[in-house]
Amino acid sequence: MTIKIAPSILSADFANLGAQVAAVEAGGAEYLHIDVMDGHFVPNITIGPLVVAALRERSRMVFDTHLMIEAPDKYIPDFIQAGSDLITVHQEACVHLHRTLSLIKEKGARAGVALNPATPWQSLACVLPMVDLVLVMSVNPGFGGQKFIAGALPKIEALARCRQEQGLCFEIQVDGGVNRTTAPQVVQAGADVLVAGSALFGAPDPQAEVAQLRAAALTL
Ligand SMILES: O=C(CO)[C@@H](O)[C@H](O)COP(=O)(O)O
Ligand SMILES: [Fe+2]
C-alpha cells in the first residue's frame, strides 16, 4: 500500500517558510498542503497567491491548495496561475459546485472537494465521477493543532467503498489532527493522502518526521 504525505504549512514557521518547505520536501513529502482562509468562511486569514508563487520557485512538490473561502470561483484562476497543481474547494462554500469544479479543470488543475465534519459524504454523489480528490475534514476548518474527530473514520470508509463499487479513482485525503496515533486509523479506513501540520512542523526535526509519520501510518 502507498500513501502520500501532505505537510500543511499552516503550522510552519512563517519567518523561515522556504527552509521549512525544503525540509519536508527533502524528507520525502509528495504534496505541499497550502491552507487558504478568508476570515469569512472560516474565522482566520492566511495565505494568498503571492505566497504560492514565491514557494513555486523553490519546490517541485505537488501544490495542494485547500481553499477555505467563500465564492472560490473568483480566486481559482489566480491560485492556478501562481502554481497550484490541485485546488480543493469546500462543498459548503459552493452554490454551484459542478460549475466550480469544471472551472478548476478548465484552468488546468486537478479538482478536489472538501467536506466539513458535519457534512454527509452523500452530498457529493453527483460530482464524485468528476473529482480527483475528496478531502475529509477531521477537524472543523480554521486552525491547526486541533483534536482529531473520530466521526471522520466512517465517512472515509463509506467513500472508499463507494469508490470501489463505482470504479472511480479519486484520492481520499484526510485533514486535521493527523499524527502518529491517528494516521494508522485513517489509512485503515481507506485514506490515501494524509495532511499533517502540527505533527510535522511541531516536531523537533520536520524532515525526519515525514518518514516517521509514513511508517506509523502503515503500521497495521
Ligand atoms: O485545513 C486545515 C485547518 O483548517 C488543516 O490543513 C490544518 O492546518 C491541519 O493542521 P493539524 O491539525 O495537522 O495541526
Ligand atoms: Fe487544510
What's the SSE blueprint?
Layout: E1 4-7, H1 17-26, E2 31-37, H2 49-56, E3 62-68, H3 76-81, E4 86-90, H4 97-106, E5 110-115, E6 133-137, H5 152-166, E7 171-175, H6 183-189, E8 193-196, H7 198-201, H8 206-217
Parallel strand pairs: 1-8, 2-3, 3-4, 4-5, 5-6, 6-7, 7-8
Helix pairs in contact: 1-8, 6-8
Q: Give me the CATH fold name.
A: TIM Barrel
> Treating each run of at least 4 consecutive H or I residues as one helix, how many helices?
8
CATH superfamily: Aldolase class I
The tally of strands reads 8
| Contiguous uncertain segments of 5+ residues | none
Order of helices and strands: EHEHEHEHEEHEHEHH
Any guess at the CATH architecture? Answer: Alpha-Beta Barrel
Enumerate the strands of the largest sheet in spatial order, edge to edge or round the barrel.
1-8-7-6-5-4-3-2
Structural class: alpha/beta
Largest sheet: 8 strands, parallel
What is the CATH class designation?
Alpha Beta
Strand content: 15-25%
Average pLDDT figure: 98
What shape does the CA trace take?
A: globular
Radius of gyration: 16 Å
The unique ligands bound to this protein are:
5-O-phosphono-D-xylulose, fe (ii) ion
Helix content: 25-40%
Give the termini distance in whole angstroms. Answer: 11 Å
Total domains, how many?
1
Active site: 35, 175
Pfam families: Ribul_P_3_epim
Cofactor: a divalent metal cation; Co(2+); Fe(2+); Mn(2+)
Function: Catalyzes the reversible epimerization of D-ribulose 5-phosphate to D-xylulose 5-phosphate.
